[in-house]
Recover the amino acids of this structure.
């Protein structure tokens, strides 16, 4: 709970800025009017009840929503000052700078080594591949478990190890931002703990944005927390439309939230 | 109260009888397959010897011990190979488009519908079509009946199977894998060629092998296109000339009044059944090998 000292340092720099972002599926708004500045080198968690649009917002940051044909975005998403939804932007380039880890561990059906090397190679990595594989796996805290079986299939690992392999795979492309969409929801508590430890390490080199349903996790890993809520609305996607309620330092959100909805949610009164 | 099983009760009796009837029908269903294979094996296997596989067929006559089907065996492989060379790139490419690029709009629906219709088109129609478009017009270097035309006719028959298995094989690949690749900055092309296509290789390969097996046994499309030849396919223009195939050899020789030719037809049937059986077993092998991985 004494993280506030770090958070209040003055050199905070915005890396991603959401400006009046509204995302719709077809005619229905899923989340609306989000303003949010995400700071470099911090872990930001997005929390909120199901259907509040936090995953939708996360996917908007590296244009994964492009894969959903009916999805459209209004407003601006700035990454280091560049508008990611400018028609001249190449989404592939965006995803090279802003990597993503998914809810389900999804290693490629290749060897552990190749899982890491694949992304680096297609991104034109020219250096020592062995070294990159080792350092990526080390940073993701899974090196000790797979150093002796780098040529085995990625599927031979346990769920938690697979997820850390996926994190290592993302680290290997040396992005600036790593997005994590409920990375621990399919994992047991011990694997979850390991991934959280990994995130503390990663914070030194990357900006991390994590969507989580687990408020304790948000409290443990993140510097900043954004609380989203959904209101029942006629004609919205799933009958609900999400919005950003409160965005602040994690300990402020959890200890002295400004909004009543935040207070209710973190104290478990709904959601 | 008596809880013991009673054979004579109405319910148990009808149960037993109906079970026996379904068993009987199941046996009847596989009986033709077994009989055909057995009959061909018995009639054909006795004719098999090394000369048969290395010699050319003789002109119709009574000489029982001369002549072989060597050129037809090679011809079957050549014509099916040509068909595969045409059908695999087009079919796999079309399947990739349907599964990965199309957004289920009217165009892709039309292609899927067309593929289904094409797979139901009788093979003789494919033969007549190629005859009308290629053979009678002599568009390919002025050649008339040719192995190339035969291959094209077979490719038409293989195409729907290849498209369908590619499409369905790719759809079975988990979306998580695609997202994973895109999420680390892979382009769509790289995602397909390096991740999804390798993951779907087994169903695609199985489909291709099955399509090959079907095409290898086709007769009707070849009668109109590849015709038949009593000679080896030799020289630089071999593919532009009529070529012998097992199925057409069987068709021609089984109708001859001479016993020598009829025997060759049986031998060719045996070889053809063996080839098709082997390809089917290979396709099963492919899918087994991959599912054990």
């Amino acid at each position: 709970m004494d993280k506030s000292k770090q958070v209040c340092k003055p050199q905070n720099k915005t890396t991603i800025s959401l400006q009046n972002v509204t995302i719709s599926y077809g005619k229905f708004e899923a989340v609306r009017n989000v303003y949010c500045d995400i700071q470099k080198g911090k872990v930001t968690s997005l929390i909120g009840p199901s259907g509040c649009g936090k995953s939708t917002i996360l996917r908007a940051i590296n244009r994964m929503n492009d894969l959903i044909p009916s999805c459209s975005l209004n407003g601006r998403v700035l990454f280091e000052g560049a508008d990611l939804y400018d028609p001249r932007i190449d989404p592939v380039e965006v995803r090279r700078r802003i990597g993503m880890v998914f809810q389900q561990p999804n290693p490629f059906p290749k060897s552990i080594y190749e899982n890491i090397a694949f992304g680096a190679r297609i991104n034109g990595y020219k250096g020592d591949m062995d070294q990159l594989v080792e350092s990526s796996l080390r940073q993701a805290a899974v090196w000790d478990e797979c150093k002796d079986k780098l040529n085995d299939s990625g599927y031979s690992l346990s769920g938690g190890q697979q997820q850390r392999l996926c994190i290592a795979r993302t680290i290997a492309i040396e992005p600036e931002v790593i997005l994590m969409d409920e990375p621990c929801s399919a994992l047991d508590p011990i694997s979850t703990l390991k991934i959280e430890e990994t995130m503390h390490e990663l914070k030194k080199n990357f900006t991390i944005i994590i969507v989580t349903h687990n408020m304790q996790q948000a409290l443990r890993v993140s510097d900043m927390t954004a609380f989203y809520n959904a209101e029942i609305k006629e004609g919205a996607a799933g009958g609900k439309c999400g919005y950003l309620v409160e965005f602040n330092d994690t300990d402020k959100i959890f200890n002295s939230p400004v909004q009543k909805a935040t207070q209710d949610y973190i104290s478990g009164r709904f959601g | 109260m008596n809880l013991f099983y009673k054979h004579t009760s109405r319910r148990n009796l009808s149960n037993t009888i109906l079970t026996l009837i379904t068993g009987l029908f199941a046996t009847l269903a596989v009986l033709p397959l077994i009989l055909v294979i057995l009959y061909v094996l018995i009639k054909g296997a006795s004719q098999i010897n090394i000369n048969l596989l290395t010699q050319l067929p003789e002109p119709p006559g009574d000489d029982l011990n001369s002549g072989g089907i060597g050129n037809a065996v090679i011809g079957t492989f050549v014509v099916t190979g040509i068909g595969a060379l045409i059908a695999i790139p087009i079919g796999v490419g079309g399947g990739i488009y349907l599964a990965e690029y199309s957004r289920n709009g009217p165009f892709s629906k039309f292609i899927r519908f067309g593929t289904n219709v094409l797979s139901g088109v009788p093979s003789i129609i494919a033969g007549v079509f190629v005859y009308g478009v290629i053979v009678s017009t002599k568009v390919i270097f002025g050649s008339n009946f040719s192995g190339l035309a035969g291959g094209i006719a077979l490719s038409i028959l293989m195409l729907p199977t290849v498209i369908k298995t590619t499409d369905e094989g790719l759809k079975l690949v988990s979306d998580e894998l695609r997202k994973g690749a895109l999420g680390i900055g892979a382009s769509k092309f790289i995602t397909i060629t390096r991740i999804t296509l390798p993951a779907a290789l087994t169903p695609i390969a199985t489909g291709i092998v099955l399509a090959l097996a079907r095409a290898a046994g086709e007769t009707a499309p070849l009668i109109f296109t590849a015709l038949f030849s009593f000679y080896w396919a030799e020289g630089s223009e071999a593919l532009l000339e009529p070529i012998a195939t097992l199925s057409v050899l069987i068709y021609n020789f089984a109708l001859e009044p001479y016993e020598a030719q009829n025997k060759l037809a049986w031998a060719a049937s045996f070889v053809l059944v063996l080839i098709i059986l082997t390809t089917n077993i290979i396709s099963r092998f492919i899918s087994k090998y991959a599912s054990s991985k």
